[in-house]
Structures are given as structure tokens and as C-alpha cells.
């Protein structure tokens, strides 16, 4: 379908995604009691689609599966457009939907990748360098991230490519902030080892 093809065409790791404030509609600051229309959600999907496809590919590592994930995400978002609150981040809402679709698919297929976590306290030691690491990781690490466990791939993509905060990543993945920190710390350790091995060769 055209909506999926446009997401595919925008795929690529060489250009880190610039974080945007994807709030939909001209009246984004309306009262919190209002709900989004289907047209508003469609607009949000059109803006966020390339990033959704890329996230789907990070999770699944298969283009066809990424297509399916995005398609199901679009359908679910349109069916549940009334659940989105205008003025909030539609990209975060859509990422959360895609993540839920992915988890359901994984459970259905009885496929799970390792959680790959370390103690959350370990990540606190390197958290001060997060901004610098993010710039490096966005350009270099994505070539290696495909070999990480699924949970780490998702956290790395959302934090270092999409630029979400730990709390925002936790909200998308529906896990505690400490779990996000743990996964990122484990991913950093693995990626550092692999980059060191590559530099030594």
C-alpha cells in the first residue's frame, strides 16, 4: 500500500532524525477534554510514517514485517483516534501503538529475543555523558545495533535516534524508567566492545 511504501522510501540510518514537536492540528493547545478527529490522526500518521517504518524495522529486522507492523499501527490508530489527546505528542502515541502491535505479534509467533539488561545503577555512572554519546551513537552505532537483543534495539532507537528522554522511552515501551536505563547501559557496553574489536582489527 502507498502508506507503507512512503515509509520505506524514507528509510536510512545516515541521517539522524531531528526531534520535532509533532503536535497535530492548528488548535494544538485546545482543552485536554477534547479528542482528536480521524482527519487529525491521519495527518499525524502522514508526518510520522517514515519514522514509524524505521522503528518497525529496528524491532523486526525484516522489511516485510516492518510493513505489516506499520500497516497495523495505522489501522489501530485510526480505529482509536478518539483516544489521542490533542496537544500531546502524536509521534510518541504512535510509537507506543506500534510497540504494542509488535509485542502482540511476537507473542503470537512465540518468538522472543533476550531482554539484555544490567543493573540500573550501572547506567547512572555514564548518564552524564549521554548528550555526547547520543551524537556518536546516532551516526555509528546503528550499523551494529541490529545484532542487539530486541529490547535493547528498541531502547537505543528511541533514545539515541529519535531523541526521546528516558521517561518518554519508558512511556512508549510501557516499562519502568530503570528498565530503560538498564537496557541502554547494557547496549552501550556491548556496542563499545564491538567498536573496540573493530578498531583493533
From TrEMBL:
Q: Does the keyword Mitochondrion apply?
A: no
Q: Which GO terms describe its molecular function?
A: DNA binding; sigma factor activity
Task: Determine if Transcription is one of this entry's keywords.
Answer: yes
- The segment(s) forming the PhyR sigma2 domain are 48-98
Q: What biological-process GO terms show up in the record? A: DNA-templated transcription initiation
- Keywords in alphabetical order: Sigma factor, Transcription, Transcription regulation
Q: Which family does it belong to?
A: Belongs to the sigma-70 factor family. ECF subfamily.
Protein name per UniProt: RNA polymerase subunit sigma-24
Q: Which organism is it from?
A: Azospirillum palustre
Amino acid at each position: 500500500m502507498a502508506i507503507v511504501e512512503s515509509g520505506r522510501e524514507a528509510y536510512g540510518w545516515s541521517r539522524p532524525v531531528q526531534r520535532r514537536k509533532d503536535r497535530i492540528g492548528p488548535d494544538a493547545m485546545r482543552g485536554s477534554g477534547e479528542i482528536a478527529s480521524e482527519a487529525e490522526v491521519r495527518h499525524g500518521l502522514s508526518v510520522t510514517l517514515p519514522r514509524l517504518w524505521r522503528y518497525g524495522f529496528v524491532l523486526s529486522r525484516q522489511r516485510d514485517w516492518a510493513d505489516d507492523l506499520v500497516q497495523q499501527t495505522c489501522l489501530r490508530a485510526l480505529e482509536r483516534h478518539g483516544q489521542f489527546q490533542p496537544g500531546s505528542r502524536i509521534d510518541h502515541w504512535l510509537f507506543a501503538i506500534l510497540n504494542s502491535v509488535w509485542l502482540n505479534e511476537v507473542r503470537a509467533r512465540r518468538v522472543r529475543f533476550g531482554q539484555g539488561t544490567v543493573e540500573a545503577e550501572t547506567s547512572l555512572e555514564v548518564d552524564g555523558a549521554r548528550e555526547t554519546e547520543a551524537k556518536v551513537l546516532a551516526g555509528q552505532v546503528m550499523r551494529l545495533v541490529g545484532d542487539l537483543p530486541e529490547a535493547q534495539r528498541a531502547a537505543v532507537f528511541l533514545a539515541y535516534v529519535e531523541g526521546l528522554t528516558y521517561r518518554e522511552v519508558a512511556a512508549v515501551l510501557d516499562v519502568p524508567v530503570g528498565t530503560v536505563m538498564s537496557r541502554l547501559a547494557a547496549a552501550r557496553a556491548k556496542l563499545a566492545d564491538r567498536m573496540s574489536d573493530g578498531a583493533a582489527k
